[in-house]
């Protein structure tokens, strides 16, 4: 891996991510001409409703950009640390646990929106970290479980959290239920952050990804055996815990923003590895950019595909992701 | 009356009755344990046919009523009255519905409106809902076109604000001013009490009747 | 006499209740190759992992060039000892060259692979006869090629102590011999190797010293022609052996199997 190849891959992907945001700004259900809406972003004297639409689209695009980046980075980390290309925050149950914690707090505080801004992420963070600690604990005590076992464990965590959430939902009012189920599927129709908070969350995600980049070489070594990684100077248990906790934080940020958007962390790193090889030094930043752009495109599709209404973005990502999961699983069993 | 759902709270006496589950998930076992002579269900609100079949199979007659339009509600009152042999009371309940319907007949709509059931996400009553019918009799065409309750793009609301926004979500005028200022500049936000305006019952009919008739008289006097 | 490269003194270790080593000692000097010989389950891998600092002993000490392994940080230790397990893993989706560069990780200081690192990796691949397929990925390599790339990765950082666990277990005789030749060529006056092997004849042909293990206990330690004979061999492997005189006075062993 050298800097030339690094830039040759990342610059076009950055253009792709930026382009997806532009496209998201141009497309929408209203009849205004695309250029008018885009122009209203920069012209302070544009019609108020045009500006409102422009910023509505911009906020959503930024939120999708962030969530796509965070989930993809978390996917890269879990896959390399747990040595399983199927490991992904959603499948491992990290998102589910974050969702359960959010549901609990929603019940206690009245609504997901009753807590405003970044504080609303707190329960999700606690839930995600709880799930990560659970995974780490299981890995330490039951080594024979293996990484396929860990996936099954995640399925169970998801089932448990899902059922708990449904049980909690029966205590909710009709109105609360509606917004809650939307959130469970994963949707950007509600952006619970103000623009300032969005910037804050963006900086947080950027910082976490940056921290991960320092460990890109280490993650490469973690895909070898534990003994080999250790003999190469990696403090395996310590690094694994640290990296999973960062993945948990990234998941929590995205859960607090968009609910349970699945499969992004699976599809994106998989496609990136296919295209550019398995070196985490390139897979991580390339996945971050690809995931960011892809989720913006998914959300743009979700906003525009049905006339007069929109579908939750989680539906789009699941339609995209579930077949990819099956393909990876089958190709793994064939090779293994 | 032997039992109610977890959502039922009016009249206050029903709160003391045994709860038999929610609309989406009624407990067939709970219902059977009360050995009722009749189970009344709505055909809308996501009720599941399986629950009705299970009850019917256990020997409890099920009366499935429609409440997705004013006319359907009127017919449901009449039918329920017949079943319970309280035809006179049923007619009493159906009369204001009838009056409202008659009044609205043949009148030109005076504007467009949306019926907001939730603001985050923005969910509105679409076609083939009771509330679309309620807006119609008040003189408004529904801006939302999809069937049932569905997500309404905020952007469409900003691009073409309706004349009136009926808000039963509990968000209040403040929310509209803060989150969609250009919409609240154009549209009249009518905040309605969710407890009354989110279920098609006699209390809602009473208010609707009042609204339609007084506005109508005002308009009639113009 | 110069400081030995590896000194294992009086170590004991046990897996749950089963005691493996009680007071085992061993020294490997500069430029020396020590083979650990024994049947399956005799404790060879455990000893290799202890020598590599991957397992903590209960008592006694392991030091490389006079520095105790337990007192070193993971990166420091990695610069002193290189360890290659019985089934080395070359990362999927990475070329042989990229895999070998990974062997330099304990010295890595930049995000990208430097020209210097790449050159070292190429030299290591050449030394193990892999230069012809340095850009191939692991799933397209034969068993022998795979093992040699792993060997290049082990050699590339020139650690004082090389610990290889069964490097020839899955190779035929001629490939096994070439692995040992490469190892001998790699060792300098400053380095030493501890290699586990179950083929006594490879040990007799290449090792300066052998440690013969049976159930975690040393049966013999020293230069092979001095310490190995038919008696101790049959004790270690539970089979009758006949010894044969090889070239240069080497003693070779043949299992004498009766039907």
Care to describe what's here?
The complex is a heterotrimer of chains A (336), B (222) and C (259). In chain A, 76% of the residues lie in helices and 0% in strands. Chain A has 336 residues and is an all-alpha fold. Chain B has 222 residues and is of the alpha/beta class. Helix content of chain B is 45%, strand content 15%. Residues 218-222 of chain B have low confidence and may be disordered. Chain C is α/β, with parallel strands linked by helices and 259 residues long. Chain C has helices at 44-51, 74-80, 96-102, 115-127, 143-155, 173-186, 200-206, 224-227, 230-237; strands spanning 6-15, 18-28, 33-37, 59-64, 67-68, 81-84, 161-165, 192-197, 209-214, 217-222, 241-245, 251-255. Chains in contact: A-B, A-C. Chain A binds chain B through residues 28-32, 48-49, 52-53, 56-57, 113, 170, 174-175, 178-179, 182, 187, 189-190, 192, 303, 306-311, and chain B through 6-7, 22, 25, 117-118, 120-123, 144-146, 149-156, 158-161, 169-170, 180-183, 185, 194, 198.
What is this structure, in a nutshell?
Chain A has 336 residues and is mostly helical. Helices cover 76% and strands 0% of the residues of chain A.
